[in-house]
Amino acid sequence: MPGKTRDHISQNESLLFEMSSPGKKGYQLPDLDVPQVDAAEALGAANVRDEIEDFPEVSEVEVIRHFTRLSTWNYGIDLGLFPLGSCTMKYNPRVNEAVARTEGLLWAHPYQPAEVAQGAMEVMAHLEAALAEITGMDAVTLEPAAGAHGELTGVLLIRAALEARGYARKKIIIPDSAHGTNPATAAMVGYSVQNLRSNAQGMVDVAELAKLVDEDTAGLMVTNPNTIGVFEQDIVKITSLMHEKGALVYMDGANMNALVGLARPGDFGIDVMHLNLHKTFSTPHGGGGPGAGAVAVKAHLEPFLPAPRLKTVGGQWQWDYNRPQTIGKVRAFYGNFGVLVRALAYIMAHGGPGLRNATLDALLNANYIRKGLEPYFDLPYKSPSMHECVFSDDRQAKLGVKTMDMAKRLIDYGFHPYTVAFPLIVHGALMIEPTETESKPEMDAFIQAMIAIAKEVESDPQMVLKAPHHTRTSRVDEVGAARKPVLRWKPTTLASKAAD
Amino acid sequence: MYPEQYRYTKEHEWIDVQGETGTMGITHHAQNELGDIVYVDLPKIGAAIEQGKSLGSVESVKAVSDIYSPVTGEVVEINEALSTAPEKLNLDPHGEAWLVKVKLTKPEELSDLMSAADYQSYIGA
Fold first, then answer.
1. Given this structure, which CATH class describes domain A83-471?
2. B66 touching A, CB under 8 A?
3. Suppose A278 and one of A149, A285, A424, B26 were both cysteines; which one would form an S-S bond, judging by CB atoms 3.0 to 4.6 Å apart?
């Protein structure tokens, strides 16, 4: 195994603080040609800040190189397969960026009067209509800034609708195969959470659900396909059961990329759902953000949507603030507009058949990887996979190597790790989602890497336990970092003063 | 491994009752499944706790998990040492790393819990 190259500075970057040397600077100001003013006298001493001790003094090129070098240490979807299950790390087509940089959209300002923002408003109206069509729902708000924010908005809508009926009810039922943010969302809205165990196929147990639903149940939060990538085949029974008891059904749309063009939540009884535009609709995701968590509802929840709403009057777009039943604003202005533009560009560039094709390719890819890895890794749930597959480390754990260790080793092979130890219903989970982005050669390289790791676990488990070996930083002490976190770098001068 | 006099829950807590007071914690199996524990969130002294309801949580590098109370009662003491040394839960979950002591108000609930032998067959040990 080749050793590490740590000699060149680009392989071993210091902090800007450590590069500092007194008097260095990245600017040059002309001599003062007006009388100097004493800031303390002019503003009052209390308003004048002291010099920040040990603030880094560096040149422009040092700053540029520092951040450019750090950027080369990164791994992103533009470098290769990014199989982080449930996160849908798909390629962000460059046409999205081109459209988002259209003059007028790029510089649109939320304080522009409606008369001179007609184009931007039309973009939002088109996106709302497209998302409503794709989901089979009646109305969409684009305000929420990300997935969990969309969940919060959705459950607030459920509460508002039930309150309008006279009783907000007390609890929300959440299957153990749902996304981890769902229980937090329900609790934030003031509901108690009732956990529903999955059946042996990893799906909602309808009989068990029937026992839990009562007059105090506000709703069910279901993820479909669920976190093991399996379609809830009893979903119509589930939504009917909830509706019979006067409860509503929220769908976490994080896995909607498995359904676009194939099935519509509105058709299988969902009342309210969110969409992660930064997953399903290809906008930047993961460090690059920001996200967008549009929420789609059936007509009976429309009056409660965040205000303002778009409307047309005499062929002109206007904002309608006269929404007496609204839950109120959930974000400043109208959502992450630049992201919304990109999502609409993606939808329009694909068109209906193209979106459906993307979905079919995502399902094909996940099943290709499942087939390729099934002989080497334990697959606890055999139900058909949609857009992702979830293995367990049971076979490797017997030899002392767990999912996290194999994920670290995968970095050595040049891939971003899969999702580790989630969902919790799978013991030692390896959750893999290739998305439609990947070609067969890229997936074959990934499958070969995973098979090689499975064989290494048998031949040399110690080597896998110490991975990664080919990275600038070897295995980091995650337990130490969580137990005794060092939250900021301290200048040596301050540290030595503290020691004095 | 699993003390005979303790009683166990399906959610992997144990309780050791002496007179009116019970000492409770999480089982060896639980800490092993959670992995390295990095934080423990315990109730305040005097808090009322209810059987089967969450009384706090333990956080490992993998996940945050609720601790479900084996019995109903009032918290009379908490294990302060765990706030600075959560790793004790990995080392001695049935002893030094007990979580809370509770004054039982419904001692009859103990009959809902498992014996050491039943718990071991439950976890397949």
1. alpha beta
2. no
3. A285
